[in-house]
Amino acid sequence: MFGFLLKKEIYIKENSMSNTWVFIMAVMILGNFILQMLPTSVFIPGVIIVHLLILLFSYILLKRDKFSDIRANMLFIFGLTVINILVDLNIMSQSLSWIAFGALLMWSMLGGGSSKND
């Protein structure tokens, strides 16, 4: 009888999550733009600071989204941040970063870090 309410709630939940990730992607793009503008004299601390700021803003955006699993999403973003820092500082090669990203993505898709699995 009230199935339309359930469908509307599911739509709002999915739409809210996708909007949050759009904002997170915008923060990542802005952070990468800032990294391109850094002079070489402050590049190493700049990389670390910019990526940690991206992580902080992602946490703030996810904290505002009441429908998201903040633990799983933050573990994914933390892994992505570590990979990005290692690649930007030339500690990890570009091809190895794609393998690490694929492993991180598969881990996340298979439920890694989800609070529902605990």
How many helices? The count is 4
Task: Assess the beta-strand content as a share of residues.
Answer: under 5%
Anisotropy-based shape: globular
Q: Return residue spans where pLDDT drops below 50 for at least 5 consecutive residues.
A: none
Order of helices and strands: HHHH
Q: How many domains is the backbone divided into?
A: 1
- Biggest sheet features: none
Distance between the termini: 34 Å
Keywords: Membrane, Transmembrane, Transmembrane helix
Transmembrane segments: 21-38, 44-62, 74-92, 98-115
Quick summary of this structure?
Helices cover 78% and strands 0% of the residues. It has four helices and no strands.
Which helices and strands occur, and which strands form pairs?
Layout: H1 3-37, H2 43-64, H3 70-88, H4 94-109
Report on this structure.
The chain crosses the membrane at residues 21-38, 44-62, 74-92, 98-115. Keywords: Membrane, Transmembrane, Transmembrane helix. The chain is mainly alpha-helical and 118 residues long. The chain has one domain. Helices cover 78% and strands 0% of the residues. It has 4 helices and no strands. It has helices spanning 3-37, 43-64, 70-88, 94-109. It is globular, with a radius of gyration of 17 Å. 10% of the residues are buried.
